[in-house]
Amino acid sequence: MEKSVVLRGTGRKRVKKYFAKFKSPFAVIMFLFLLVYAGTFIYTIYWGLISSLKAPSDYYVNLYGLPKKWEFGNYTLAFSELYVVVNNMRYYLPQLFFNSFIYAFGNVATSTVSTCFCAYLCQKYKCKLSSIIYNTYLFMLIIPIVGSVGANISFRIAIGIYDNIWLGFITNIGFNTAPLMIYYAAFAAIPNDYMDAATVDGAGHWRILLTIMFPMIKVPFAIMFLTAFMPQWNDYMSPLIYLPSWPTAAVGLYRFQMMSTNATASVNVRMAATMIVCLPCLVLFIVFRKQFMGNITFGGIKG
Amino acid sequence: MKNERALKNKKTDWKKWGFYFSIMTLPIINFIGFTCGGLLNTVGLGFFGYDVKTDTTYWNNFANFIDVFRALTEGGIARTFLVSLIYYAIGLINMAMGYIMAFYIYKKLPWGEFFRILLFMPSIITGMVWVSLFKYLVREPAFAQLFGLEYGLLSMPNTAFYTLMFYTLWMGMCGGVFSSVGFMGGVSPELVDSCYIDGCNRYGEFIHVIIPALWPFLSVNLITGVVGLFMSGPPLFAFFDTSADRSLWSFDYYLFSMVMKDPSNKPNQMYSAAASLLVTAVVAPITFGVKWLCNKYGPNED
User: Fold this and answer.
1) Which value does ipTM take for this structure?
2) Which CATH superfamily is domain A85-302 in?
3) Which residues of chain A make contact with B88, given a CB cutoff of 8 A?
């Protein structure tokens, strides 16, 4: 009896404490705003999902309601019609997803690893060259280079890396400015004593990097890797411009939206294609939610 | 003994530099080759012309620049700058709203974590998905009727303009939330406590503690965002491919669609390189000016 009273009391306190957070007008206004704003994302996805399961006749008279008849055939049609033609060859969805994976993984792996290692050198091997490199990149961050797509295409054609995904990966080996700053800060937070102790024990430079220093920043590394992976996976502009023979899933969706064949003209089939393309991203996010939500701060890592 | 130590040091130095350059060589080559090379190519292309008949390039002095200047002043392209300016302003609103939303989440106010997950959705799902969902929803007359309009919101240039503005606000507002919450997490709790002891409320905390603490991050966004003065715009290419109505064009889209219509068209590449150099020549001093202003007048946590 006493226990339940205590529990009830605690619960009430908790509820009271919870509602106390709403005392300020800022909290109430922002809560309502965020509720509506975030709700629009859910609603848009929901609308896409129900639209993808409607028959065209149902869709035009019943734009917001649930399908009268669930047309799963839209998905089969979208799956078979979502393709990109390159040099008379059709690239279907599995191939497009594979290309997306290769494109995203290759770009992220080369740029993330090289940026991480370069940040390590800039931070722990302080010399004039290190400081020149670090400051040059900070300077590059603020230099505005605008609208250079045309020049970039001609340059890539001239040096033979246009439409070549593998050589494109090699050009990624370098420093990405924002991650460079984050890794730089992460390595700065690790005392040099670890390196000194390892050197005394006879460890070489590579061993110190790979077995001592790198494992210490594996959390920010994983977060940076994942957060860089998604934009690459979702990128449709760069593959469209620089890799016309390597269509990705995002490029496939873009082409599919612009197609005007009979089979794909139905909005519902297009919605089904949209849902298919966004599915892997959602699955990846659900699986790695904790890593995605990890906090990165200038001082290192939180959470 | 001394010689032995010197020899050992030399060996260690050799190993150290061998390690250093085994990692740094390729990035440095890439930087010189691709970043600097790409820049030089842009500069070079701006000054060259292309003879289609003989398939040769020739030195064209400032002809490309004059063409761009003419197009900007006479060819009705001036409006693209106005569009870019409007979208730059939208970008600033988005940035401000992003910080306010991040503050809500950072303060662990009700449902903060839930909102944080939802606000991350636009970053997870490809922009093409959002564009196609949005496009098909707003183009339906049944949706337009909600606003008292007869036709789909993208079918008339006037309504399309405002619809695309809304889309940019809608998608962009949550863009910076994720990183801002991370940076806010790095603010010292002692600083926040002392602010409340000094009589601050939540608004005071945001203005006097959070914004100054976030200033390095915020100023980088402001400085790098200056480019947007001329290059901001909605994702017209995803919405309309290269056939967007002229009244919707941003300067970025004008250059981009010109190249995308035929990526291997050399005269277009040269023209767009000249245009990009011209804009860069205007934007670069403004960027450095904003950097100077941020450094001089930026807020202080003290």
Assistant:
1) 0.85
2) MetI-like (1.10.3720.10)
3) none
